[in-house]
Amino acid sequence: MSGTLYLCATPIGNLEDMTFRVIRTLKEVDLIAAEDTRNSIKLLNHFEIQTPMTSYHEYNKFEKGRKLVEKLQEGQDIALITDAGTPGISDPGEELVKMCYEAGIPVTSLPGAAACITALTLSGLSTRRFVFEAFLPTDKKEREWVLEELEREFRTMILYEAPHRLLKTLKLLLERLGNRKVTICRELTKRHETAFAATLEEAVSYYEANEPKGECVLVIEGRSRSEALREERERWEEMSIEEHMDFYLSSGISKKDAMKKVAKDRGVQKREIYNYLENR
């Protein structure tokens, strides 16, 4: 019988956010796979956890992942922890989970701290619908592709950024998204936790004068639906009503249905379009 992989969330700053269940599990498993054993040993010592550790990180995730799967197949239980937060979110844990599912090995997740969710709930922006983008890609083509998606995104957006790149990223977002609302969260759960709510323009001005410190989570307002609708109507209004009608008639729909679509696009009653076409 195979063992189980336990995804164990660890604190993102405040050690009191460690759950009782995670502490117990880390003591009971046969092995702990950690992103950085030098960092994690401090956490384990604090909670008097003496379980053996091994490294599992971005640069050995495939080779070490296969070895961990073999141990699980032999019946060992393994806990996976990241430097901070929930494994699998913006870290190589997702690869190990895939390997386990392919090998038929049970996986369970022990919930706890996650910087993206902590920042979202702290942001003061809409939490109903959101998208997590982690760090913007370093590859220019991939970054451009992501930015094009974000320009059209209606949901609240969550990004991670390092302090030395924060100002450059804020300027880029201002240029591409316009002057949206943003909340920049730093030192989450720690003594000097801050949530700086501003516009992107205000944030750029602030960080031009103040050097950012600590990893940052950016929570950014999504695109306004009313603004998108207004822009769409403006594009249609650049066409004459005749051209607008021809656009739909050329697709093979009836004149009646074309008038309905033209009226909807322009935000007017169908009768207005009918009267215009009858009296031209």
From TrEMBL:
E.C. number(s) listed in UniProt: 2.1.1.198
BP GO annotations: methylation
Any Pfam family hit: TP_methylase
UniProt catalytic activity: cytidine(1402) in 16S rRNA + S-adenosyl-L-methionine = 2'-O-methylcytidine(1402) in 16S rRNA + S-adenosyl-L-homocysteine + H(+)
Group of enzyme by EC: transferase
GO molecular function: methyltransferase activity
Residues spanning the signal sequence: none
Alphabetical UniProt keywords: Cytoplasm, Methyltransferase, rRNA processing, S-adenosyl-L-methionine, Transferase
Cell location: Cytoplasm
Domain Tetrapyrrole methylase per the UniProt entry, residue ranges: 4-203
Biological role stated in the UniProt entry: Catalyzes the 2'-O-methylation of the ribose of cytidine 1402 (C1402) in 16S rRNA.
Family affiliation: Belongs to the methyltransferase superfamily. RsmI family.
Protein name (Swiss-Prot/TrEMBL): Ribosomal RNA small subunit methyltransferase I
Organism: Faecalicatena faecalis
